Amino acid sequence: MSDVTHNIKLIQQRIGAAAQRAGRQPESVALVAVSKTIEPERVETALSGGQTVFGESKIQEARAKIPLVSGRAHWHMIGHLQTNKARDAVALFEVIHSVDSVKLAAELSRWAERAGKTQAILLEVNVSGESSKFGLKPEDLKSTVAEISQMPRLEVQGLMTIAPFAEEAEKARSCFRRLRELRDMFGLRELSMGMTRDFEVAIEEGATLVRIGAGIFGERKRYEPAE
User: Fold this and answer.
1) Does 107 fall in a domain?
2) Strand 95-99 to strand 209-212: parallel, antiparallel, or no bridges (unpaired)?
3) Burial category of 177 from C-beta neighbours within 10 Å (exposed 0-12, middle 13-18, buried 19 and up)
4) Which of 41, 73, 102, 201 is least buried, going by the fewest C-beta atoms within 10 A?
């Protein structure tokens, strides 16, 4: 068994235990393996180990990598997305986690219309208020949801956030709880929150999607796509 496959099994066990502590079914939490900077061969190893959903952060890297990976992989965009990359994002990803403006949503809707697809999205919320993070302000969420909900080619499935970095995972709990409260206000389904250092707390607070990279692939080796 490869290290990647072993790590996936361990993470899944921890997901299951965290879900049970919260009185939830383990199947209610989906693992998004963060494959940014990971070469296609290691993504294939993860696929062979049963992992099917992968998260990328940069359009250029995803555009080069995705064609090299088996078609059974499902791809999510989890990084900051500029409006001029909306066309590629619609073409490459099943779900976009990082929609943080009406302007970006409108561009995604426009390209989804041209592609003849309905694009699943999550709205990124800057719950912590950190100036270094992207995302909507919580107080702007109501008006943003109302506007984006009128865009026929977009399906708002839920919310996403990145908690402040802390050595102690417990310090992220209030951030995750606040996102769940916001999600519930709008009757949405998905909560994308929690990474390698804090995903168990995120699950206890309601995460349905956890984004884990180092816990699966270990220390990253920079993947440089061929020109």
Assistant:
1) yes
2) unpaired
3) middle
4) 41
